[in-house]
Structure formats: structure tokens, C-alpha cells
Amino acid sequence: MPELVSTLKEIREARGLTQAQLAEAIGVSRKTINTVENGVYVPSTVIALKLAAALGEPVEALFRLAPE
Amino acid sequence: MAPTQSDADLADRLGRFRARMFPVLAIMFLIQQMAFFSNPPAERAVDHVRIGAWVAMTAVILFVLNSRGFWFRPAKVRAMIDDEVTRSNRTSAMHWGFVAAMLAGIVVYVVQGVTQFTAREAIHLIVSAGIVMALMRFGLLERRSYA
Fold it and tell me: Where do the structural domains in chain A lie, given as residue ranges?
């Protein structure tokens, strides 16, 4: 199964947001942001869309499949 | 003035607390099982209290494992504590708990030919294996998520 590559951390930091602030904005715990950024957890479509909306980016800018 | 704690901060703190407590709860539950096997209950009134206490403790742990917990906290904080990472961790923990209980059942069934277990002892072993495994796995995954 192809792995998910996330640029969430880079984009979040570029916006000057902490994990807690982003978590608060989309109604999840900081743990969710942390595990998604570290590649421990693959987020659901709903969370991915919420993250994209909160950061003002398309989902494709936050996540992409690693080349096989 | 102390800074106001956000809902995310509070959820974080409570989630970490739960992640630390579940393995402790598992060890406490195991110790209780050791007490059961080292001094099996007979038919005295005090033994019925022990049996009732074990049933109550088991039911409470099962309920806590399967619920969001933190009932007196705001709904938003509870939803954050029980977000999709935690639900995924819980699903994995329950899966491991089920497998551990089934394996314990198989072992009890096989060993029954060598050592005689009472029905109550067999139930203790099977339930303990399932609950302890689920608690340990859930606690481990949650701690890893916070790392």
C-alpha cells in the first residue's frame, strides 16, 4: 500500500500555528495533529478536508501518495 | 493571572492522564486476579462480596474501555478526547483483547486435561487475559500517539 506523505507540519508552521491551535480550530485533540504530521496515523477524509479548510489549502497540498 | 486553558489543552491533559492510567489499571486488575488464585473464594459471606467486587470492577473497566469517559467535562472536550485517533486505538485494543481472550480460552481448554479448573477460575483467566491485553494495548497506543 502506498504511504502517505504529509506536508501538514511545514504548512502549519508557515502559518505560525501551533499543533494545539490547529487542533482547536478543527475540533480534534493535539494528538491527532501530532500523529498525522508524524505519519503515525492516516487521517479520514473528513479530517483531511477540515485541515485543508483551516489552513486555506487544497487537500492535495497537504497530502500526497509516496511514489512507488 | 494564569493563562486560560483551551479546550485542546484540557483534552490533551486528560488524554495523557488516561494513557498513563490504563496500564496502571491493568496491573491493579492483574494483582486482584493473583489474590483470587492464591486464596480462592469459598461459600462464606465475605467470599460473595469478593466475587461481587470482581464482577463490578470488571464491568466498570469494560465500560470505561468502551466509552469516552470524563462524563463531567464539556461535550466539546469529550469529543476531542475521543477523536478518530483514539477510536482507532480503541478498535485495535479491543481486537487484541479479543484475540488474547480467545487464546486464553484455548489454553484453558487444552490444559484442563492436566490441571482441573473450576468454571469460575476459567472465566477469571479468560476475562483477565482479554481485559488486561486491551488496557495495555490502548494505553500503549495512546502514549505513542502523544509522543
Answer: 4-56
* A4-56, CATH topology level: 434 Repressor (Amino-terminal Domain) (1.10.260)
The pTM of this model reads 0.81
Contact B85 A44 (CB under 8 A): no
Task: DSSP for B101-125, please give it.
Answer: HHHHHHHHHHHTTTS---HHHHHHH
Mutate to test the interface with B, among A31, A34, A45 (most CBs of B within 10 A): A31
Grouping H, G, I as helix, E, B as strand and the rest as coil, residue A3 is: coil
Q: Are strands A4-6 and A63-65 parallel, antiparallel or unpaired?
A: antiparallel
**Tens-place pLDDT, residues B66-85:** 887 777 888 888 888 888 89
Q: Give the Cα separation of A9 and A33 in Å (integer).
A: 9
Residue B41 has pLDDT above 90, yes or no: no
Distance (Å) from the alpha carbon of A45 to chain B's nearest alpha carbon: 11
Contact B15, A31 (CB under 8 A): yes
- Chain segment B115-127, per-residue pLDDT in tens: 888 888 899 999 9
